[in-house]
Structure formats: structure tokens, C-alpha cells
Write a structure and sequence with these properties.
The chain is mostly beta strands. Among the domains are: 82 residues, 2-Layer Sandwich (so0334 like fold), CATH 3.30.1910; 104 residues, Sandwich (Immunoglobulin-like); 224 residues, Single-stranded right-handed beta-helix, Pectin lyase-like (Pectate Lyase C-like, 3 Solenoid). It is built from 6 helices and 53 strands. The strands form 9 sheets. The protein has a 14-stranded parallel beta sheet, with helices on one face. A 13-stranded parallel beta sheet has the order 3-5-17-19-22-25-29-32-35-38-43-46-48, with no helix packed on it. It has an 8-stranded mixed beta sheet with strand order 20-23-27-30-33-36-39-44, with no helix packed on it. Strand 12, helix 3 and strand 13 form a beta-alpha-beta unit. The longest helix has 17 residues. The radius of gyration is 25 Å and the shape is globular.
């Protein structure tokens, strides 16, 4: 035994000796050896030489390159780490600076670039298209023009960009065999005296090949990528993503200005990309092919995406079809997703995941998106907990589409005009605050369910809705002036405040310990609901210098209503898969903490996301 321990220690020390630290600096040279005193110039050069266990430290500056890591680590403990030097601002861009603009008329300028400027990929000739894409009757390209870091909008016709500039500055491009000509409005400034950039790269940090495992990327600002449309039936290329790999950690980055998606945890590509004709059968065929291509816990997923700031992406902040299994998405701030709305499709959300198996989506702040969190097809064993969602006013805070569960949705703040769209079964909603409308829609699609904690398909069933549990939630509505200025969402057809729509579903509904305020109504299956239509909780969300604060009124009657602590034992099993409500790792769940991570009472927990509400007005820092 003593000999074995000695060998083990020697092996650990050997790994530490052989692991290297490479440095990258704008003052470096790719002919150097990559030490701190002799750094590389490009991140890609460091990627080319780094081996499992090595660390790449990138120093202050702007790096205009696409990192294509040729290899990853061999395990979670022997990963390749890419990180910005502590205390230094490192920006990686998919764009290049453009000078030589010539005035045309009004606020419009023109530049002619030889096509060799773009290399093998020209975003201004790359048309956005694919399954479930809605083009609104015009062409859209992955090219983009930026003025002082902010992007301009693509015009549908050249005539539009030649007009006097309005609030939205426009660009338009034409590409022939030799040149790319771009016209752009610059709002009264001389673009040759400002910072003007254009997209030239499809991604910023994305491997060409799948199976590049165990990479960490932390501390960077990554921006301005010509990302393509990322439907669930094609390769999903984000500004950054692991490309059908395992065990990435993407943390503490700012990710912004992606034409389509920011972070992709998605599908690999094959000859069937974008050939499903946007059909359920087409996607089910893609799932079957993925299983044959290694869609399992051993080869794909188990990523961690945490504490990033993600904004200004026109499709999704985080997207992933199948490749996000067993992953954790936590602590991210996601906003300004699909707010320009020049094109559309069925993939727009702050977080859009197909096949969310055994995931944790927790403590994210999602706002000003078309839809907040969208779990589409086959979500099973996933927990959505402690998220703050508001001002997602075109659609919903949460959309659960054709899943059989089990899913646990707990301790979330759903503060937009439309809180929930439910086309699923086998869901437990526990200790949430629903301030918006709820819509329930049984569906004829037959979708898969799995063996517990696995990607092995057990069967297919039609979605009839129901088999849901609503325990210890607050349901309310907003009256009079909107409590925060951007809350203007339309009423969705068939949506109501509260649970009235669950009167029509095809499976049982279990409802207990909930409070219904203002216009919110219980369903007929509710046991002893507390109804107070005259009580206004006075919801008000405000951004202050130290964070986001929520005002909420509480009533003494909420404490008197008897409730129980929610556990796996009382939740039972989701009916269709026959799988219990558990944590993603298979351990029993006990919902004994609240939104603020404070301990709940074991005897009579408080209704809603906050355990320690006092009667009267409460001011709570929620982000």
C-alpha cells in the first residue's frame, strides 16, 4: 500500500512538472517559445502547441482571430485552460477595421473591399437560412457593420440606405466576383475618424472538429461574429461553442454581437443539415442519427456555462440541440436577444435547448428577450431554479414544448406579461412567483422519453398535457400602469392569469398550498387555495447602482395557510416515463432553500420564492 501511494504521488508530481504555461501578448511573436518573457502573438499559436493540462494566459489587447483548438484535455482534471490575464482586458473579435470610406449622399458612405480581404469566408455573401427560419420576404446576411462597437441594421434594399438616416442606422452590401461594396449610414460622423468594423469570421472560439474535450475559456470579451442560423437539425455554430464535445467550462466572459447565437452547446453537422423541412419527423430522424453518432454521456455534454454576460444576439443567447445534455447553465446575465427583429424563426430565446436531459439551469438573469427560457423536445430530469426573468414581452418567460418530464421548476421569478406556455407533461412547479399569464396547449406531436439519466429512448407518446404539480406558488396579475416601463407585452390568445387552463388537460393535475391574487384564478383541481382578489402585491422591479431590487407586499394570511416541504417522495413519478422527480445526478430532491439561498422552514414553508417575507412591504435585492 505504501509503494502504491508513493507511485501515485510521483505520477501527480510528474503531471505538474510536464504541464506548461503559455503566454500570448500583442507585443509577442509567433516565432517565440510562448513563455512570459517570450510570448506568442496569437492565441491560435498557443492553441496549436498546448497539450492536456496546459494553461494559456492571454494579456491585454484586442485579438482579431478565430481560435480553432486542435485538441482538448484528457479529463476534467487535465484540461486545456484559456484565460485572460488577471486584471487585464482581453478582447477577441471576429471583425476587422475598415477605412477608406467615401461620402455618397446624405449620411451615406461607401467602401469597396477586394474579396481577398475576407479570405475563404465572406459574410456579406453568406445568406441566413435553414430549418424553422422565417426570412420575412427578404435576404439577410451574416455580415455586419459596427460603428464604435455598436452594430448597424441591414437594409432590405440599397435605396433604403441612400435615404437620410433615421434612428436606426443601416448598411447594405453587394458582392461580385472581385469586390464587396458596402454602403452604410453613419449618422453625421466621418467613419474614417471613428472605429468602423465589419464581420469577417464565422465564429470567435469554435473547433472545426467535434470531440475536442475538456477546455476552459474564462475572462474574455468575445464579440462580432458572423454566426449562421442554428436550428436543431443542423450544426449549431455559435460565437463560442464546443462543437459536439464534452466537458467544456465557459465562465466569466462577456459574449456579444453575434448575428445569430452567442454560446452554442449544440449539434454536429452532416449531409442532412437543414433538410428536415422544419418537421417533427425531420427532427426525430436527426435524434436517431445523433444516437448513432455518439449522443451519450460518455462523449457529449457535461458542460458548465456560468457567470457570463451575454447580450445582443439575434437568435439565442445560449442555444443547443442534443449537445447540452448533463450540463449546468448558471449565474449568467442574458439580455437584448432578438430585439432588432429583422428576421425571425422558431429558435429565438435567451436560452433555447432541445433535449435538456439532466441539466441544471439556475440563477440566471434573463430580460429583454423574445422568449426567456425555451426547453423544446425531450427535456427530462432537468431542474430550472432561482432564475430572474422579466421584460420578455413578445412571448414568454418560460416555454416548455413537448416534453414528458420529469422537470422541476422552482424558486423562479416570472415577471413578464406572459409567464408560462405549457405544452408538456410531468412538470413540478414549486415556490415560484407567476406575475403574468399562463397558456396551456395540448399537442398532437408524439415525442420521445428516455430511460432515467440516459439518452436511450424508451418510447414515444403524444402530448395531452397534465400530470403537473403546482405547490406553494404565488399567482398574481398586474393592474393599471405597468410596474416597470418596458412591460407592454400583448395578451396571448387563450392565456389567463392563474391555472384556469388546466381544467382542460388530459391527465391529472395536483395543486396545493398556492396563493391566487388579483385576477389570478385556480383550477378546479386546486385543494384549499388561498384567494385574495383584492390584494395587490405591489410588484416593482428597479435597477439601482448596486443591482436589481424587487418590491413585494405580503399578507399575514399567507403564513397561516398550511404547506409542506416539497421532496422527491411527495412529488412521485412523471407518468409517461415512469421516472421519479429527482436531482439531475439521481439524488433525492428537497426544496429546502429559497430564491435567495436561505433555509426554508421544515414545518410550514412560506409560499413563493422568498422564505422570509414580512407582512407589508418587502424590498429584496434579486440580482
Amino acid at each position: 500500500m505504501k509503494t502504491f501511494n508513493t507511485i501515485l504521488v510521483l505520477l501527480i508530481l510528474s503531471n505538474q512538472v510536464w504541464a506548461k504555461e503559455y503566454h500570448v501578448s500583442k507585443a509577442g511573436n509567433d516565432l517565440n517559445n510562448g513563455t512570459k518573457g517570450s510570448p506568442f502573438l496569437t492565441i491560435q499559436m498557443a492553441a496549436n502547441v498546448a497539450q492536456s493540462g496546459d494553461i494559456i494566459i492571454v494579456h491585454e489587447g484586442i485579438y482579431r482571430e478565430r481560435i480553432n483548438p486542435p485538441r482538448g484535455g484528457t479529463s476534467d482534471n487535465e484540461r486545456i485552460v484559456y484565460q485572460a490575464a488577471i486584471g487585464e482586458t482581453v478582447i477577441i473579435k471576429g471583425s476587422e477595421v475598415v477605412k477608406g470610406w467615401k461620402k455618397v449622399e446624405n449620411d451615406t458612405w461607401k467602401v469597396v473591399l477586394p474579396n481577398r480581404f475576407f479570405g475563404k469566408f465572406n459574410p456579406f455573401a453568406d445568406v441566413i437560412s435553414g430549418d424553422w427560419f422565417l426570412d420575412k420576404g427578404r435576404l439577410h446576411h451574416t455580415g455586419a457593420v459596427y460603428l464604435n462597437g455598436k452594430w448597424l441594421d441591414e437594409a432590405a434594399k440599397k435605396e433604403e440606405v441612400l435615404q437620410p438616416a433615421t434612428h436606426d442606422l443601416l448598411w447594405y452590401a453587394e458582392v461580385n466576383d472581385e469586390n464587396t461594396t458596402i454602403w452604410a449610414q453613419f449618422g453625421g460622423v466621418d467613419p474614417n475618424k471613428e472605429l468602423v468594423e465589419v464581420n469577417v469570421r464565422q465564429a470567435v472560439f469554435y473547433p472545426d472538429q467535434p470531440g475536442i474535450n475538456f477546455i476552459t475559456v474564462r475572462g474574455f470579451i468575445m464579440e462580432q461574429a458572423a454566426t449562421p442560423w442554428a436550428p436543431p437539425t443542423a450544426e449549431q455554430i455559435g460565437l463560442i461553442g464546443p462543437h459536439w464535445s464534452k466537458g467544456w467550462i465557459i465562465e466569466n466572459n462577456t459574449i456579444r454581437y453575434s448575428v445569430c447565437s452567442g454560446i452554442s452547446l449544440g449539434k454536429y453537422g452532416d449531409e442532412f443539415d437543414n433538410k428536415s423541412e422544419s418537421s417533427s419527423k425531420g427532427y426525430l430522424d436527426a435524434v436517431k442519427r445523433a444516437l448513432a453518432s455518439g449522443w451519450n454521456k460518455q462523449h457529449v455534454g457535461s458542460h458548465i456555462v456560468r457567470n457570463n454576460i451575454i447580450h445582443d444576439c439575434e437568435q439565442a443567447g445560449i442555444v443547443g440541440s442534443l449537445g447540452a445534455i448533463f450540463s449546468t447553465i448558471s449565474g449568467n446575465e442574458i439580455y437584448n436577444i432578438h430585439i432588432r427583429r429583422r428576421f425571425s424563426g422558431m429558435e429565438m430565446a435567451g436560452i433555447k435547448i432541445h433535449g435538456a436531459i439532466d441539466m441544471i439551469i439556475s440563477n440566471n438573469h434573463i430580460y429583454r428577450t423574445w422568449r426567456g427560457i425555451w426547453l423544446d423536445w425531450m427535456a427530462q430530469g432537468t431542474r430550472v431554479t432561482g432564475n430572474l426573468l422579466h421584460d420578455n414581452e413578445t412571448a414568454h418567460d418560460l416555454f416548455l414544448e413537448v416534453n414528458h418530464g420529469p422537470l422541476i421548476i422552482d424558486n423562479n421569478l416570472f415577471l413578464s406579461a406572459n409567464s408560462l406556455r405549457d405544452i408538456s407533461e410531468g412538470v413540478a412547479y414549486v415556490h415560484n412567483l407567476f406575475a403574468g399569464r399562463i397558456n396551456v396547449q395540448p399537442n398532437k406531436r408524439r415525442t420521445p422519453y428516455f430511460k432515467a439519466h440516459s439518452t436511450e429512448i424508451e418510447g414515444l407518446k403524444q402530448i395531452v398535457c397534465g400530470d403537473v404539480r403546482f405547490y406553494n406558488n404565488i399567482f398574481t396579475s398586474f393592474n393599471g400602469p405597468a410596474p416597470w416601463p418596458e412591460r407592454t407585452g400583448p395578451k396571448e390568445k387563450g392565456a389567463f392569469f392563474g391555472l384556469a387552463q388546466y381544467n382542460k388537460v388530459g391527465m391529472p393535475v395536483y395543486v396545493n398550498g398556492n396563493v391566487f391574487l388579483q385576477k389570478a384564478k385556480p383550477c378546479k383541481q386546486a385543494k384549499k387555495p388561498l384567494l385574495d382578489p383584492g390584494f395587490d402585491p405591489g410588484l416593482s422591479l428597479q435597477k439601482k447602482t448596486d443591482g436589481w431590487w424587487l418590491d413585494i407586499m405580503a399578507d399575514t394570511s399567507w403564513v397561516l395557510q398550511q404547506r409542506v416541504l416539497i421532496t422527491s417522495e411527495m412529488l412521485g413519478k412523471a407518468k409517461i416515463p415512469g421516472v421519479p422527480f429527482m436531482m439531475p445526478d439521481g439524488s433525492p430532491i428537497i426544496i429546502d432553500t429559497d430564491f435567495l439561498h436561505k433555509k426554508r422552514s421544515n414545518i410550514n414553508p412560506m409560499v413563493g420564492p422568498f422564505e422570509h417575507l414580512l407582512p407589508g412591504k418587502n424590498k429584496l435585492k434579486v440580482w
